[in-house]
C-alpha cells in the first residue's frame, strides 16, 4: 500500500503519516512506531499455522517451510500440538518487513483453548481472521469476530487455501460479509489461469501480482478490469463511506475520479481505526497473496502507540496516572503466556505496554491471582537475568525490550500468566482479562501411592502455565478433579502430567450427594463398655425429624431433671454432627434434620465426653435404620447462550437431562439465553455435548441452586435407601 493519509494527533492515534515516517528509520527496533502486533485467529484447520510459516519463509525468518503433518512448524513445538496436529498454545513469531517488526501471534482455533486465544488478543493490536476457502465460516468464527468487536480490535480477513480443488472463494467471501458485516470488502480479487489461482488483482492499483512469476507485477488486462469493475466500485464506495473527508462522497457522486493515494490513505486510517475490514486471498503453498498481506500488516494495521493501554492501577487499586506506549515511561508489562522448560525453568512471554525492560534490572511481579483455580496472588521483586526474543520455542538473547514489543523472560521464580511486570519503585497492576470458566470435570488418581505424591508435586507446574485449568480436591468424595475446557484440553493436561513422569489414570467423577431423613424416627444410642478398670458409659435417646430443603441442622435439648449433665449434652450433639458428616446410608453428609435429645443415662464413674459422643453417633445410625433415608443431588441454575437457530435442539436436549426450563431471553447478535435448573450429574460432559449440538457456538454458565431428591431409578447401587 502506498500514499498514506494524515490524522489529527489530538484524536489519540499516531496516524498513518507517523507509521510512514517510522518505516524509513534505521537502527534497531527501539521505537514502538516500528512494531506491529497481529494475532492470527480463526477456527481450527483454517490454515493459520501454515500461513504464518509461509510468511516467516517469505521474509527470511526461516529457510524452509515446515508442515503440520511432520510436526516441524515453528508455531507448534509443544508435544501435544504435534500429537493432536493442531495448535494448543499461543506462539509468537516475529518477522521483519523493511524496517518494521511484525510480531505474529499464532493462536489456537479450537474452542478448548480459547484462553490462549484471548491471551493472543491481549498481546495484539490487530487481528487477521483466517477463513478457509474450503470450509468457510462457522459459528465459532462468528463468535470470535463478535469477541474482537467488543474490544474494538482492528481486523482483516484472509481467505486461505484458495489453491485447493474444492475452494469456493466467492461463496466464502459472501459468507464473510453476511457473518461479519458490510464493512468486510476485498482489496484484491483472485486471478485464474487454467482453473488455478495464480495471482491477485489490486482493485485500487489495477495491477496483477503473479505468484507463478515470483510475485511480478503486471498491468491487468482489459478483460480482467471489466470483470472486477463491480468489486472495484463497491470497494471505493466502502472507503468513501469511512472517510473523514465529508466532501468526498459528493465529489464521487458528481463523477469525479478520486485519486488512488486519497483512497489508500482513507482506507488505511479506517483499517487502523477498526471500522473497515479488508479481505485478501492467500495460498501458503504457492505464495499467492503473501506480499499483499505483508503490505497490509505493515501499512494499514496500527502500531502500539495508536492503541489504548489496558486499565492500570497501583497495588491498592487506585488508578495510575495517564500512561502511553512510551519507551521512556514507567515500566508496565503483562505475562500473556507461561511455560515450564526442563532446562530454562519458567518461561514467560511478556507484552510491554509502557517503558523499557532491560536485562539485569530488578522488577516487581504482581498478580491478581485466581485463588479458586489454584493461582495465588503474587507480590515480589525479581532480577531479570535472561531477556530473550522468542521465535516459537526458540529464544535469542536481547539487551532490552521497548514499549509495544513482546519478549520472553526465563528462570523467573513465581510469575504466571496474567501477572504484571513493573518498576520495583513504582509497582503497578494491569487489569486482568476475562478468563473462560472450565466446566468439564476429569477425576484423576495416581496408579500407586508414590504416583499420588508425584501427581500432587507436579500439579503446581501445570496450573502455573494454564490459567483455564481449575484443580479441586473434593473433601466429600476425596477425588482430585481437574476442571477443563473440554476433552482436547483435558488430553493436553494429562499429557503434560505424564511427561513429568506421573503415572495416572482417570476415574468416574463422583457427584457429591447428600442424605436426609424421609420421615421422623426415634432411637436409643447405648455405648457401654467394661473391660476392667475404667469403663465407658453413655446412653442417649433422640428423636429425628426432617426439615425443609436448605434448613440445615437443628439440635434441641429437652432433657428434664438433669438426667444428662449439660457438658454431656454438648458431647451428644458433637457425636451426632460427626456422624452426619460421615453419613448414615451411602456415606454422604446428612442435611436438613432436627435432632431432639429427650433422655438418657449416665454413670457416676464411667461416663465421659467420648462415651456420649459415641452414643450420639450410634443413636443417629439407629434412627436411620428405623426410618427411610433419601439421597439428595445438587442442582444448578444454568444459563445457556446459543444462536437462535439452535434454541429448539438445545431445549429438546434439556428434557433428556431432567432439566427444568425457567425462561428464555432474547439477547444481542441473534442469540437467546435459556435458563434452566439441571442436576449436576447431567452436566459432567455438557461442555462437550453443547458444543457438538450448536456447532461450537453455544456456551453456558452455572451456579449451585439447591439439593433435590434423587429419582429412585437413579439411586447408586449399594445405597441403603
UniProtKB/TrEMBL annotation:
Residues 1-34 are annotated as: Disordered. One of its GO terms (biological process) is ribosome disassembly. InterPro entries: EFG_II, EFG_III/V, EFG_IV, EFG_V, EFG_V-like, EFTu-like_2, P-loop_NTPase, Ribosomal_Su5_D2-typ_SF. The keyword Protein biosynthesis applies. Residues 33-305 form the Tr-type G domain. The keyword Transmembrane helix does not apply. One of its GO terms (molecular function) is translation elongation factor activity. It comes from Cryobacterium lactosi. This is Elongation factor G-like protein EF-G2. Keywords: Elongation factor, GTP-binding, Nucleotide-binding, Protein biosynthesis. Residues 10-20 have a biased composition (Basic and acidic residues). NCBIfam families: PRK12740.1-1, PRK12740.1-5, small_GTP. Gene3D superfamilies: 3.30.230.10, 3.30.70.240, Elongation Factor G (Translational Gtpase), domain 3, P-loop containing nucleotide triphosphate hydrolases, Translation factors.
